[in-house]
Amino acid sequence: MKIISNEIDLKTSKRLEIIDISSKVGEIVKFTGIKNGMINIFTRHSTSAIVINENETGLVKDFENLLKKIVPENSDYAHNVIDNNADSHLRSFLLGGSQSIPVIGGQMDLGTWQSIFFVELDGPRSRKVKITVIGQYLRY
Ligand code: ZN
After folding, report:
1. How far is Cα 74 from Cα 85, in angstroms, rounded to an integer?
2. CATH number for the domain that contains residue 28
3. Could you tell me the CA-to-CA distances from 76 to 5, 13, 23, 84, 90 in Å, in that order?
4. For residue 79, is pLDDT > 60?
5. Measured between alpha carbons, how far is 69 from 87 in angstroms, rounded to an integer?
6. What's the gap in Å between 56 CA and the centre of ligand 1?
7. Residue-wise pLDDT tens digits, 117-139
8. Residue-number span of the structural domain to which 15 is assigned
9. Are residues 117 and 25 in contact, defined by beta-carbon separation less than 8 angstroms?
10. pLDDT confidence of 38, banded at 50, 70, 90?
11. How many whole angstroms from 132 Cα to the centroid of ligand 1?
C-alpha cells in the first residue's frame, strides 16, 4: 500500500467563494498512479470548508444565500472581539474541513453530478488544500 501526499495552492478573490477543485484533485489522483484506494481532501484553515455537491450555477448561488441566511455576517458573536470573523468560523463548523472519496480504476468514484468544492469563507486569501491518496497501484 502506498500513501502519497500533495497540495493544491489556491488564491481566492472574494470573502465567500465556492471553487470547483475537482479537475485539480483528479489530476493529482492520475499523477499518483494509484488505481484503488481512497483520497482525502483536507483544508488546513478553520475559515474554509470542503464539500461535495452539484456544480450548477443556480444551485451554487442558492448555497451561498443559504450560508448567509443561516449564519449572518454580522451578529452578536463572542469571537468577533478577537478578529471579527466569527461568521466565517461558524460556517466552517457547519460544513466541515475534509472529504474522502473512493478511488477505483485510477479515478475518483464520484457520482455523475458530484463535484468537489473548496469553500472560501474569509477571503480573499492564499489557501492550501492537502491531498492524501492511499491505495495500491494494481487493480484487484
Ligand atoms: Zn477568527
Report:
1. 9
2. 2.60.120.460
3. 40, 26, 39, 11, 13
4. yes
5. 11
6. 30
7. 999 999 999 999 999 999 999 86
8. 2-137
9. no
10. very high
11. 27
- Which burial class, exposed, middle or buried, applies to 65 when counting CB atoms under 10 A from its CB (0-12, 13-18, 19+)? exposed
Distance 25 CA to ligand 1 centre (A): 28
Q: Give residue for cell 474554509.
A: 48
Question: In this predicted structure, what is the pLDDT of residue 131?
Answer: 98
The whole-angstrom distance between residue 22's C-alpha and the CA centroid of its chain comes to: 9
Q: Is the peptide bond before 124 cis (omega within 30 degrees of 0)?
A: yes
CA of 76 to the centre of ligand 1 (A): 14
The chain-wide mean pLDDT, for the chain, equals 97
Confidence of residue 108 (pLDDT cuts 50, 70, 90): very high
**Distance from the alpha carbon of residue 110 to the mean position of ligand 1, in angstroms:** 33
Would you state the pLDDT for residue 138? 81
Query: Which residues, 6+ apart, have CB-to-CB distance to 89 below 8 Å?
Result: 46, 47, 79, 121
CA 122–ligand 1 middle distance (angstroms): 9
Task: Give me the number of domains the chain comprises.
Answer: 1
Environment of ion ligand 1 (residues, CB < 5 A): 83, 85
